[in-house]
Structures are given as C-alpha cells and as structure tokens.
Amino acid sequence: MPDVSCSLAGTLGDGRTVHRWRLVAGGVRADILTLGASLHALAFPDRTGRQADVVVTPHAIEDKLTSARYLGATVGRYANRIAHGRVPGPEGPVRLSVNENGHTLHGGPEGFDLQVWNADPFRSAEDAGVAGVALSLVSPAGDQGFPGTVDVTVRYSLSDAGELRIDYSASTDASTPFNLTNHAYWNLSGNTRGSVGDHELYVSADCYTPVDTDLVPLPGPPRPVAGTPFDLTTARPLADVLDRFDDGQLALAGGGYDHNWVLRGQAGRLRLAAVLGHPPTGRVIECLTTEPGLQVYTANTPHDPHGGDTAADETTAGRPLFRHSGVALESQHFPNSPNRPDYPPAWLRPGHPYRSTTIYRTGLME
C-alpha cells in the first residue's frame, strides 16, 4: 500500500512556507512540492536495482524562483505560448501579461509555478493500492490578465505498480484560455550533469506544428514527421538531433526539440503518447495522456526561461544545470490555440469543468 507523508521543505525569502509531500509505493518514490505543485523527485531502480532520482530540478527551494522556475512545476493558466499576449474576447481582444519576446509563456510573469498551493492527502476509495496528494489553488479574475476566477486542483497519485498519475481539474465563472501541464525534465541516468543524448524517444504522432523564430506555431496545418528529424514513430536516439543546426526547425529551437507533436488517437481518452528509454541503465518511462499534444523540449540552451545558466548559481542536487541535461515531455493543448480556430479548443467555460490526466509509468526496457 502506498505511503504518504509530509515534511517542511523550506521557507522562501518572502516568508512563505513550502512543504514536501512524499509518496512511496512499489519501489518508487515521488516528492511533490507545494511551491508550483511541482514534481520535485521521482526515484526508481535500474536493471541492477540501483535507485536514482530521474527528475532534473534545483535542490534548494529558493532556486526554484530563479530561471529554474518551471522545472517540475505545474504551469498555467496557459502552458506554452500565446502569441503577442492577446486572445479574443466577447468585447474585443483581451490583453495578457507578457514575459517572453512580447508573448505570454506558461501563464505570464507570475504563473501558477510561483504560487504556493494548498495540499491534502487522499487515498483512493476504489483502489487501496493508490494514494496521493491533492493540491489546490484559486486564480482570481484578472490574474496575469486572464478573465474569470478559476478553481484548480492537481492530484498526484502513486500506485503499487509504479505509475505516477496526475489528474487536473478546474472550473471558472467566466470563459478563459486554459491549458495545464507538468514541466518535469527527465534524465533517466540519474546524472544531472549528463546529456540525454544516450536516451531513446518514441512519440506516437504523425505530425508536428512547425514554429517561427519566437517558437510560436506557423500559420497552416501541422506538418508530417515522415522523412524529418521529427519522426519519432520508431524510437530514436536523442543524440541524432541534439546540436543539429542543419534542419531549420531544430536550429530555431537552439539545436534540438522545442516543438508540439500532434498525438495519435482521440483527445480526451487516455492513450500512449511517448516512451523515453535509457539503454545504459534500462530505465524507461511511458507517458500516457488525454491531451491532444505533447511538447518535447531538450533543454537546448544553458540559460533561457526553461532552463538555467551553467555560470549562474542555479543547481540541481547542488550542481549546475547543463545544456541537454534533461528532456521535458509536456502533455498539452497546442501552443497559441486560443488564436487558432483550426486547433483543438483550449477554453475553460462556466458549467464545463476542465479534466485532464497524464500518467508517467516507470519500468525497465525489454
């Protein structure tokens, strides 16, 4: 039966207290922080039985308020980019707070990742082998320019089978763009200094959304992955694409992936999205989701809004965060969907609650 415990993680400079919730089951340990409703650690054994934490994130709580803010966090109200910080509204365009090249990234300057969430433990009434922690937050109307007051709950649960499940739910009193994801960076070697080039990635998608110089999707339909570096329909070593600048799309992203894949299958139904494997250790994580898209980001620059600066004081387990030291698998609605009627809609409306589920299933490669 899963064990759930809580401890003090630290106090921020502004006096806010952050707690760590630990879930342990089936040889797997997950740590969840109330700051940003963040996945702070996920540890499981390799083929030799050696346990290691595979989440790349700062050890010091204060460091999560630096450029490392998104590592492991629940990001919102709108994960990824909204072009020019504008969305349509009933009385004309609504202007949002911007924080990246004149665009709104991951909810704006003061997104969900910087908030301290309320937390309560729970045990599944249907399955005694599932337990977890539910984190809740109220985002008031006008938060970062977004309309409507939103009540959000993120439930992390761990099963005896080694599945970390994230269930998102939300309601609002006025229509608002809404799109949550978890921004964990994975390095299955357990070595946060090491490149993920020796990892293999499969993504269940036949198309992706190409981007412009600001990493906002280009006009027009998604492009087929066939015959491109974006074809992950067969597991591909990430070394094939890291530091490649001969492909225009990889070059725009800084020599790797920072793109949205259009997942196969029906959105709203839980299905396999991606498989990340590490042949040297045998560790593997399968990502399942109800979302229509998956953003794959390979930490292409050492200092950007996603990652860190190798010369700065940002650390992971007391060490600098290095380029390509992790890969994020962000289940999501497509970037800029509120301005793209050709994309799956990403609006939360009164009387129509938001529901989304993503599972990270740990295991060993065959």
UniProtKB/TrEMBL annotation:
Q: In which pathway does it act?
A: Carbohydrate metabolism; hexose metabolism
**Catalytic residues per the record?**
183, 330
Q: Please, one GO biological process term?
A: glucose metabolic process
Q: Which molecular-function annotation in GO is an example for this chain?
A: carbohydrate binding
Coiled-coil annotation reads none
Give the reaction(s) catalysed: alpha-D-glucose = beta-D-glucose
Q: Which UniProt keywords apply?
A: Carbohydrate metabolism, Isomerase
What Gene3D superfamilies does the entry give? 2.70.98.10
- SUPFAM superfamilies, from UniProt? Galactose mutarotase-like
Per the record, its GO cellular-component terms are:
cytoplasm
From what superkingdom does this record's organism come? Bacteria
EC number(s) recorded for this UniProt protein: 5.1.3.3
Q: Which InterPro entries match?
A: Ald1_epimerase_CS, Aldose_1-epimerase, Aldose_1/G6P_1-epimerase, Gal_mutarotase_sf_dom, Galactose_mutarotase-like, GH-type_carb-bd
Renumbered to this chain, region (Disordered) spans: 330-349
Residues recorded as binding beta-D-galactose, renumbered to this chain, are 80-81, 183-185, 258
User: What Pfam families does this protein's entry cite?
Assistant: Aldose_epim
Belongs to which family?
Answer: Belongs to the aldose epimerase family.
Name it.
Answer: Aldose 1-epimerase
Please name the source species. Answer: Actinacidiphila paucisporea
